[in-house]
Design brief:
The complex is a heterodimer of chains A (127) and B (240). In chain A, a hairpin with a 2-residue loop joins strand 2 and strand 3. The longest helix of chain A is centred in the last third of the chain and has 20 residues. In chain A, strands 1-3-2 form a three-stranded antiparallel beta sheet. Chain A is 48% helix and 15% strand. Chain A has a domain of 88 residues: Winged helix-like DNA-binding domain superfamily/Winged helix DNA-binding domain (Arc Repressor Mutant, subunit A, Orthogonal Bundle), CATH 1.10.10.10. Classes of the chains: A alpha+beta (127), B mainly alpha (240). Chains A and B meet through helix 3, helix 4 and helix 6 of A and helix 4 of B.
Chain lengths: 127, 240
């Protein structure tokens, strides 16, 4: 798990295929399936992807965009926040609370690593 | 008390004969290595895995791209709405050409503009409902912010020019500023939208250098023709 604030893990990979081992910042430890689980989950991947192209998005925007429920989104967003991938800014608009999410540098780097990983998989399995 | 001799070691003579088929006690190789006892993993052909993995990787990348596009671009510009606005403009140009006095002409076009905006807003709301994305989410708000200033400038100039009696300059002003608002608002929308805006701006510029009597024709070609043509393109290619 990369819950350690997305610290880059490098481990000598001896079993994964060389093409996958070559992905920067991501080890192919137990084979190519060992992904960044934190970002791999659909809702979390959606949050990070959406935030990567929008400076910040409100809780309701994200919820409607990803088609999830309040509880589901906040649980996933909390995990990303704990890992330091996203930041959560709470404020008040008059009396209504407003929650904005933004992507951190760590989150952006991890999304890049994930994209590289996916590309490496496609490259390595090309017929 | 007498107990039967429990076969606790394979060395006991007679064991192989008394329990010849008991797997747990048997010492022969065949019983423990039948295909039924092998791990299921080895029965599965291993070639399939990279293919499934590849498909999933492609699927993940597609999901990321679609999420990025959906979250960043304003996709509610409605082609049907464009066709409707074009039809209103064509009808208005026919009506307006019957008026010789500038006030009547102006009123016809202002009514047409109000109708057109209602159609635009209604069809955008309809399309956003169909797509399941709220109209005024992140990109929607940005669209409004980008579209409004040129339109507001157009409204101010309309008042100023009408009071000054320069109504023959209105077609060029309207086409130019409407085009500007479509270009700025459409920068987050599908490709045909900003292109349509540029053509509106070109039509407005042309209207300024043409004889004043052509104003109504430029209005029909711009607000009627461009809306209908691009409305059909958007309708066909981008749904709704």
């Amino acid at each position: 798990m990369a819950a350690d604030g997305g610290a880059v893990r490098r481990r000598k990979d001896d079993e994964g295929s060389p093409a996958l081992g070559a992905v920067a910042g991501r080890s192919a430890e137990a084979g190519p399936l060992e992904l960044d689980r934190l970002i791999h989950e659909r809702v979390r991947l959606g949050i990070v992807s959406a935030l990567a192209v929008n400076g910040s998005l409100s809780f309701t925007d994200l919820r409607d965009l990803l088609g999830t429920t309040d509880g589901n989104l906040s649980a996933h967003a909390r995990r990303l926040e704990d890992a330091g991938y996203v930041v959560c800014m709470k404020s008040f608009e008059g009396r209504t609370p407003r929650t904005e999410y933004g992507l951190t540098d760590v989150g952006r780097r991890e999304l890049n690593a994930y994209l590289n990983h996916m590309e490496a998989i496609i490259e390595a399995t090309r017929e | 008390m007498w107990w039967p001799r429990w076969p606790d070691s394979p060395e006991i003579p007679g064991l192989a004969r008394t329990l010849p088929n008991k797997v747990l006690d048997a010492t022969d190789f065949k019983a423990n290595h039948s295909p039924m006892n092998l791990p299921a993993k080895k029965l599965r052909p291993e070639v399939r895995e990279p293919v499934a993995l590849r498909d999933r990787a492609i699927d993940n990348l597609r999901f990321i791209r679609e999420t990025m596009e959906r979250s960043a671009s304003f996709t509610h510009v409605s082609g049907i709405g464009g066709v409707g606005m074009g039809a209103i403009a064509l009808a208005a140009s026919v009506f307006a050409s019957g008026y010789d006095d500038p006030v009547g002409w102006l009123v016809v076009w202002l009514v047409a503009a109000a109708l057109s905006f209602s159609v635009a807003i209604l069809t955008m709301a309809r399309k956003s409902r169909a797509e399941g994305i709220p109209l005024l989410s992140g990109p929607g708000r940005r669209f409004v912010w980008n579209v409004t200033p040129p339109l507001a400038a157009g409204a101010v100039l309309t008042l100023a020019l009408a009071y000054a009696g320069l109504t023959h300059l209105l077609p060029g002003t309207w086409l130019l500023l409407y085009g500007t608002s479509v270009v700025t608002g459409g920068s987050y929308s599908v490709r045909p939208v900003p292109l349509m805006g540029l053509l509106f701006m070109a039509a407005g510029t042309a209207a300024f250098v043409s004889p004043p009597g052509w104003g109504n024709a430029y209005m029909a070609a711009g607000f009627g023709g461009l809306h209908i043509v691009f409305g059909i393109v958007i309708w066909r290619k981008h749904g709704g």
